[in-house]
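Morning F.,

Quick status update on the modeling queue. The single chain you submitted on Monday has been processed. Sequence for confirmation:
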Amino acid sequence: MRSADPALLRDVSASETPLRTTFRIKLNGQTVSIGTVGEAFRFITSLSAIEWMEFRALHEEALLSLRRAAANGMLTVQATDALRTLFVRAKLL
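Structure tokens below.
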């Protein structure tokens, strides 16, 4: 199964697997809480590729980690760490 398979992306987007922490990000004057794999996946895929261009490698690593965590809840630590790294470098945290 390819990583861009629409069924797989839907599964990741709908995942309620909790992350190891809840990220609270202020975006456009509103606070966004991200506490599950699905919420994180939707957040980092809802912004355009241009917005993540500077952090492309970190963005791709976070996406891969979220896909893996959606399939195996034991991998949420790695997904949380990848998100934290991406958010810190993008100055969202």
